[in-house]
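#onboarding

Welcome to the new folks! Below is a worked example of what a typical request in this channel looks like: someone posts a single protein sequence, and someone else replies with the predicted structure as tokens. Don't worry about understanding the tokens yet, we'll cover that in week two.

Example request:
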Amino acid sequence: MALSPAALLLLRGVSGSNATNTIIDSPIPSQFRIFETKFVANPPRSPLGLCEGDCDKDDECAGDLVCHQRDKHEEVPGCTGGGSDTSLTDYCIRPAGPTAAPTIALATPTPQPTVTIIQSPTPLNTTAAPITTTPLPTSLPTTAPTAKPVQIQQGQKETIFVGNPPKKPLNECEGDCDDDDDCAGDLVCHQRDPFGSVPGCTGGESSGNYRDYCINDSTASPTTSASPTHAPTISSVPTVSPAPSVQPSLNPTPAPNSVSERFKLRLYWSPNYNWQETRKETFWCWQCRGGCKVDKLIEIDHCKGADYFQYYGEDNSYRPFSNPELCVTEDGFDKESRPLRLKKCNGGIKQKWDNSGYSESVGFNFDKSKPWEIHPESKMDKCVTQMHHPKAHERVFIRRCQKPRINTTSKWVTYG
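Example response:
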């Protein structure tokens, strides 16, 4: 028998496991068709179709599709199969907005329409009031107390995923933001981990993804003393400093590493790496594209001896040797379109970096003989990377460390 238009919408848009995710003539409008996620290649040889991966950026997706960055078991908007996908594969999807495809459940259409019978409500008994009885209290306390419930204040908004990247400034409790610039007005971007709560919002505790949400910074509750004292505490015995030593220490503290010698930052290479289908050693270093001036971006290129390849470290910041008044500054994360840039040094947190390697060293110190990762001090789960197997003039930006580590592009060494 002929299916109704409503029933036709329940059909899938893929005819087989090896089908390419391309739109063909069909009675189902293309914007409503659902495809299963499909891994093609990394890097892809041609623009990827709807629900195909592994993409790293929007340019690798066909037409107006965008690259959806995801974590393990994360659903892919408008596609099926992401929840069972244990890899970190990213897929091309339709951009978020009014034209985004709605999710349509797969089902077999019923031959007859479903009829819902609505019964009349039970009349209220206005003559008798309900009687609530309290059970007798137990004589002993329970040995397994209930878990502390999640405190939800009246009037809190539910967290809502809008898009990544968002197409407009996000309102309170909306995500996925990367920094405060993605939020409307005075709202700030709250960085969270899976199942992390969102101040002033509900829903974060039940969400296992890495989405970040815009919040009102004033919703944070101030810390108050539980039982303040009536009078200030006065010590009965004054503190007396010990007598100074008459001889210098046999183990003086080392000089602070505030300013380093100039160096080049090279992408770490190992003989077992297979970059761009070759195991031949290559040399890729940071450079200031177009000269080390304000707003110039950081990218990689074949290492050379020019000044714009040379940097030094001071006060946990990276500064170009040719223009030490500028600092390498973060500009959001997870997007190649928001690379590291040079800005006037201001001592801000976006210009502070932490290097971590195989040793116990912390802060800005590093062992030149071993590779190490560069983390922004405010986001220690993020790594500085150019993401995929290196090519000339690729931008350096910040991304969650899992995928750069898989792609062997999260580590750096000093060179020359």
